[in-house]
Amino acid sequence: MLTTEDPQGLNDEIARLQRENQLMQQLLAGQSQTAEDNTEKVPGQASAEEEAAESTASARGGSVDNDNGPMPATAAGTSTRVPSETDGTSEAMSGSPSASQNQPNSPVQTASSGSVAQTPASAAGKSAVASQGRQAAGGPVSQSPAPQQTEEPVSSAEVPDPINPAQPARPTSVPSVTEDEATSQQYEQAKADMAKRKRRRVPPQAEKPMDIVFVSAEAAPWSKTGGLGDVVGSLPIALADRGHRVMVVVPRYLNGKEDHKYAAAKKLETRVGLNMGSTGFHEVDFYHQHDNQVDWVFVDHPVYQRAGNPYADEHGAFGDNVFRYSLLSMAACEAPLQLNIGGFRTGEAPGYPYGQRCLFLANDWHAALVPAYLAGKYRRHGTFQDARCILAIHNMAHQGVEPAHTFASLGLPDDWFDTLGWEFPSWSATPGPAFNILKGGILAADRVLTVSEGYAWEMTTAEGGWGLDGILKNKQHVLNGVVNGIDMLEWDPSADEHTAASYSIDDLSGKAKCKASLQKELGLKVDPKVPLLGYIGRLDWQKGPDCALDAVQGLAQRGCQTIMLGSGVPEYEQRMRQSEQSFPDSFRGWVGFSIPVAHRIIAGCDIILMPSRFEPCGLNQLFAMRYGTIPVAHATGGLRDTIDDVNPFASDTEPSGTGWTFTPPDAPTMLGAVDTALDCFHNRKDVWERVMQAGMAKDVSWERSAEQYEQIFNWAFIDNPIRYH
Questions:
Q1: Its principal location (predicted)?
Q2: Helices (H), 61-183
Q3: How many angstroms separate the CA atoms of 129 and 359, rounded?
């Protein structure tokens, strides 16, 4: 659940909805006044409804007054109530039973004519309510029936935030809907709207809203092979929430006729012909889907319609990838000029194009030709004079290098070859002159951005620059790093549908249940005292799976249980299988990938291992800290930026740290860091819990990242745009 320091936007919206609700109540009250007059009360005797309210007030420790005013009675004199989406929010956040809890999906609760529903006794009511809270959070559910509730939704109560209790709490009032006001279908829609309002708060708005165009090879959930898809699937939404108009341009990958993931996208009438140099003109179509206030634009061309992932199939990388992504880059340049995809943040046609004053955010080498096209083609003809382009580098190891003779297929002027010029080394398969798309993008971009401050520095070194460190050193004045965020709704330990129990920073008891469930699922000994360590990631050299596999024996000797989840290099996959055979009581290797299993590993493990040789940002350490799982990671790139080393001797008022880092990335060094962590796990339980809570309190939301991106976008417009030749 997203956090906020000043939820003013949400408060304003709530106030408006309350005013509308009060007007409706006044209208309904006039219709039901006669029925109300016929309801008599015995002097000196409290009604059942008042007793229920008094019981609720006692359980809450406060008043039951509702800021929305009294609930109206129906014309028949019955008390009708629709459960609010915010009922029981306190329990979902804190992990402890609340005296007021209703299921979001429960039916409308109506008392019989002439009577009022009764509130159960405190003990039984709390037990059943707690069961409902676990069901809403995705945990195990009691089979006993849920009690009816009569108390009003908490209107102006403040609910502690599960991520950082020190931050101001949020009001939880939402409008209620009665059966008289809506049909069953309308009621379901109202519930969905309330859920959306509850889960997606309105963050502070940008002072200068911009038109922003993302260009990427991936965007989750439509296409994803790694962190790039996650970033482009989440960051645009966070920026749109701040008031920007945001478009995302990605290929429309189709894997056969049965591929329906783009079913919600509508084909636009606009077809654009692109001059791709020596390969001639190529026409592309565009599909559009407006979702979460973002314009998702999918470029359609036959080169994106093939089996495999976005870049390769079982035979290896596609041989025409440079053409496929140069086509994407040029189509993205045309999109803000040609596509009428709706008014500001509406997504409704007829609309108007984004226009020439926009901010392009080109991601990795696949989109690095966008700044080159802007500087080398469009601006020399008077177009996009007021636009800016920032190149976001997620991984320097991938640069888009091709033999020189294919340069003419890019559609760039011939005098741009030197800007992209490169040389294949003598030992390569095709030695000699070449061109480097990422190099050209760096030189042509107005600013360069990467996914952590640590990686921004590493890119300027010979070890981390992959041959482009000299160019990046010359652009250090426009080079910035911003750590990625994570989806705080998908990764929420208090409401994770994939885990055995829910828990929060205030109540960690559910984590032990998650651990026991994971141990049982893996066929390991169920023992809370045994440290459970996890590794999740691609099995390739960068992620350091060999380091983790080399440490399996040492971890077993230390009494640890270890689980590895991932796929990749066959050698590492085979070593995982062999390790499980060699250490059947302490090791499990899961070849492949499963999102539910990844959630259960993150929630159930005590420690997450991240021995990456280099890591531009890293996401697993953010997921882990969100779930109170402590990272032990190589001190590189974003891992070094996001993990604060533990100080076991810190006082209660001092930061305790969020994990342990080590260097170099080898098994003996990693085991040394694990030893330090295990000493704390076994002998300093108070410190261990503080470290868990420090990680859970850390702000890893996309909202934080979006604010930093926004600042860099503003900087881009301070200087004149890059013009070449």
A1: plastid
A2: 89-94, 122-136
A3: 50
Widest Cα–Cα separation across the chain: 100
Which pLDDT value is given to residue 620? 96
Specify the higher pLDDT residue, 219 or 174: 219
22/323 Cα distance (integer angstroms): 60
State both tokens at 653: 């008022």
Residue 661 in domain: yes
pLDDT value of position 201? 59
Distance CA 241, CA 196 (A): 13
**Are both 387 and 458 inside the same structural domain?**
yes
Nearest to 165 by CA among 532, 716, 694, 680: 694
Question: 141 and 236, same structural domain?
Answer: no
DSSP string, 430-441: S-EEEEEHHHHH
255 with 335, same domain: the answer is yes
> Which residue segment(s) compose the domain that 516 sits in?
509-700
Q: How many structural domains is the chain composed of?
A: 3
Task: Classify residue 350: in a domain, yes or no.
Answer: yes
Specify if 270 maps to a domain: yes
- Locate 298 and state its tokens: 């999918």
Cis link prior to 221 (omega < 30° from 0)?
yes
The residue among 72, 67, 62, 50 whose CA lies nearest residue 150 is: 50
Phi and psi at residue 184, to the nearest 5°: -60, -40
Whether the per-residue pLDDT at 82 is higher than 80: the answer is: no
Domain final residue, candidates 133, 164, 199: 199
The 3-state secondary structure of 24-83 reads HHHHHHHHHHHHHHCCCCCCCCCCHHHHHHHHHHHHHCCCCCCCCCCCCCCCCCCCEECC
In this structure, the answer to whether residues 475 and 524 fall within a common structural domain is no
